[in-house]
Amino acid sequence: MATLRDIRRRIAGVKSTQKITKAMKMVAAAKLRRAQDAILQARPYARKMAEMLAHLSKRVDLSQYPLIAKREVQSVALVVVTADRGMCGAFNSNIIRAAMNHINNNYRQLHASGKVKLICVGKKGYEYFNRRKFEIVLKHVGIFNSLAFADAKTIVQEVTEGYSKHEFDRVEVVYNEFKNAVQQRVVIEQFLPVAGTEGHDGDVKNAAAHIDYIYEPASEEIISALVPKHLNFQMWRVLLESNAAEQGARMSAMENASTNAKEIISALTLSYNKARQASITKELLEIVSGAEALQNG
Predict the structure, then answer these.
(1) Considering the domain boundaries, does residue 292 fall inside one?
(2) What are 40-48's contacts with CB under 8 Å, separation 24+?
(3) Of 52, 79, 88, 204, which one is the catalytic site residue?
(4) Catalytic annotation on 88?
């Protein structure tokens, strides 16, 4: 049975942990506010750019654009976006599990022949896949500490270079999409060849079908300039989504941890009071027994 000193030490330890979790929750909440504002501002621009690209793609021959034209898939690259730190609930494990399931369900044969390559954004994903001997061709660790648009451009440049050199024939991104402070959604999106140019998305397809724009200069020139901008901003949106989702997951996890610590402190305090009462009762019994022994003697 634990002594009173042991229980006091446990209560002090849990209280210290609770202070840390509360502080981490406040930090995550402050970061979440900024990250949420950034992603809400980025989404409309990304959506409009996708609509314009879908509309333009109906006016030009897509086969002359290497980043848009489809080709036979002989190798695949997955951009897996995780966090650099833990203590954010199931944020990282959900991404890793989704990536593993996607590989096993859709690219099992390619993976067995070494044709599935990974581009890890975030320390947690890199550590997991590196331990399991996956082929990691690129990694970006620590970019979420001071996230910048230049980071997205660097990733896109590396990915497009590999795609242009036929190191892989399809690129997909696995990340957490931000929905609200307590909910994220794992998304797997096609990145290359550029998705949405054939109007498979309902909103994009309807917009492209019912609006007839007049473009100046020619559509070919515009689409050549638009594709790199589109890829850079879509990757930037993915990073913003993941960052906001991470802060929301961490805030929720730290809130749950603080609540659990409060319950543990209550339970330990009750145990401490019971043990203290039992100790006092035992001492009283010893005193009474000693007094009676003296009287009888």
Answers:
(1) no
(2) 42/233, 42/236, 42/237, 42/240, 43/237, 45/233, 46/233, 46/234, 46/237, 47/203
(3) 88
(4) yes
pLDDT by 10s per residue, the chain, length 297:
578 888 899 999 999 999 999 999 999 999 999 999 999 999 999 888 888 888 877 777 777 788 888 889 999 999 999 999 989 989 999 999 999 999 999 999 999 999 999 999 999 999 999 999 899 999 999 999 899 999 999 999 999 999 999 999 999 999 999 988 888 999 999 999 887 655 434 444 454 445 666 766 777 777 888 889 999 999 999 999 999 999 999 999 999 999 999 999 999 999 989 888 888 888 888 888 887 877 876
- Amino acid identity, position 42: A
Q: Rounded to an integer, what distance in angstroms lies between the CA atom of residue 149 and that of residue 155?
A: 10
* Residue 140 domain flag: yes
Residue 230 lies in a domain: yes
Domain count, the chain: 1
* Structural domain that includes position 148: 22-254
Is 17 inside a domain boundary?
Answer: no
